Amino acid sequence: MADQLPTYPITDRTCPYDPPAGLLALQEQAPLVRVQLPTGPAWLVTRYDAARALLDDPRMSSDMGREGFPTLYRQKMRPVLKGSFMRMDGDQHAFYRTMLAGEFSVKRVQAMRPEIEQACDQLLDEMIRQGPPANLHQAYGVPVSSRSICQLLGVPYEDADFFTTHLEALFDPHRAGAPERIAESKAALSGYLDELVSRKEKEPGDDMISRLVADYLIPGKVDRPELLLTSYLLLAAGHETTASMITTGTAALLMHPGQLAALREEPHLLRGAVEELLRYLSIFQFGITRVATEDVRVGDQTVAAGEGIIVSPLLGNRDQDVYDDPHTLDVRRRGRPHLSFGHGPHLCVGHTLARIELQTAFERLLTRLPDLRLAVPESEVPFRTETLVFGTIDLPVAWGEQPAKTPA
User: Fold this and answer.
1) Rounded to whole angstroms, how far apart are CA atoms 35 and 4?
2) Which pLDDT value is given to residue 83?
3) Heme: present as a keyword of the record (predicted)?
4) 3-state secondary structure of 7
5) What is the rounded distance in angstroms from the CA atom of residue 177 to the CA atom of residue 175?
6) Rounded to whole angstroms, how far apart are CA atoms 153 and 209?
7) How far, in Å, CA of 408 to CA of 402, rounded?
8) 117 vs 87 pLDDT, higher one
């Protein structure tokens, strides 16, 4: 019976960095486990190999207009991603991937590194000038992420407060009033981007939106709503997730001093440490949704046509058959790639930019503030466990000489 299935999402964590015990219990059962979503039953994919196989399978559709497509929302709302390239399959999806591939090429993104480094240093200069304590998320994580995606897209950074406020609504769909807030925010951002595209048509710059206008909109290869939705999704995805990774990754390092010390003593570990933090945190925590267009066999289990799946990067990244001691943060870890950017045809298009941002943000932070520490006890750092993006957006940090303790 459907009402006997375990309810998903499961969010109760005893340790902020470990998956909920209820999720780990499901992982022990099988690579695929039936769970109850707000819209009905679906398969939860709990194991790494099964996740990669299904995400690479063309019979698993991203089209949320298909019958049986799973949704994690308890409240009825118009899906933000519906109609976007992220919810397309086959040749239609490949067209948009090709359109964006050059914009996120390693060469183009690497060319942004000096400007990202400069932005990091400017923000750290301001933090140091104001003195401790500081909320690292607001002072560093959010503006590093915002500046980078604004630079790439050609969005004026002086408008960051406007779009940051509206983007926050998208990542907390379970909050009271979320459908209305999401609809209002999407309308406001779409209107903003529509005006921006009009300006780019008249005065193009050296940025992604200008190039897409010139190469795709004006020749009629895409229409205006398609361009606006694509720009909207890139702005949203490139802002919230990277900002949260900078802040939550820093929190993880500060709460694991042995790992932080290793990273300080051996700076060459940084690139691998970023990958380990991505694996360990899995901040896009609830999963990747698909629906089967045909019966798909996975081991000794079958996902029938019309049945939905939720691929859990959180569980795949903690698969003990793939990673030794998977619940331990280890900046020296090497091995199979994580699932935090997805896998297969829908691998996150912005993963190259995200990696450069994270590598640069952590390198500058640890270099400029070698004595960075938490300004509150670990138990007082709040973590969001019921939002689409896991982590903390309130990380009080300090540096410099510690105040002397008052004698008892």
Assistant:
1) 9
2) 62
3) yes
4) strand
5) 6
6) 5
7) 17
8) 117
Q: What is the pLDDT at residue 160?
A: 84
Nearest to 270 by CA among 363, 181, 401: 363
- Give me the half-sphere count of Cα atoms (radius 13 Å) on the Cβ side of residue 22: 11
Three-state helix/strand/coil letters over 122-138: HHHHHHHHHCCCEEHHH
Amino acid at site 82: K
**Per-position DSSP letters for 36-103, written without gaps between them:** EETTEEEEEE-SHHHHHHHHT-TTEE--TTSTT-----SS----SSTTSGGG--HHHHHHHHHHHHGG
pLDDT-derived band at 77 (thresholds 50, 70, 90) equals: very low
Percent of the residues in the chain that have a pLDDT greater than 70, as a whole number: 93
DSSP string, 215-251: IIITTTSS-HHHHHHHHHHHHHHHHHHHHHHHHHHHH
Rounded Cα distance, 198 and 205, in Å: 12
List, in order of start, the domains of the chain with CATH numbers.
2-398 (1.10.630.10)
Burial, 277: exposed, middle or buried (Cβ in 10 Å; 0-12, 13-18, 19+)? buried
**pLDDT tens across 130-157, in order?**
999 999 999 999 999 999 999 999 999 9
Number of Cβ within 10 Å of residue 107's Cβ equals: 8
pLDDT over threshold 90, residue 264: yes
Residue pair 310/286 in contact (Cβ under 8 Å)? The answer is: yes
Query: Which residues have a Cβ under 8 Å from the Cβ of 31 and sit 6 or more positions away?
Result: 45, 46, 47, 49, 50, 298, 299, 301
Lookup: tokens for 73 = 């929302």
Measure CA of the first residue to CA of the last residue in the chain; give whole Å: 61
What does the DSSP 8-state code read for residue 393?
A: S
Residues 6+ apart with CB under 8 A from 25: none
58: its two tokens: 């063309």
3-state SS, 72-90, equals CCCCCCCCCCCCCHHHCCH
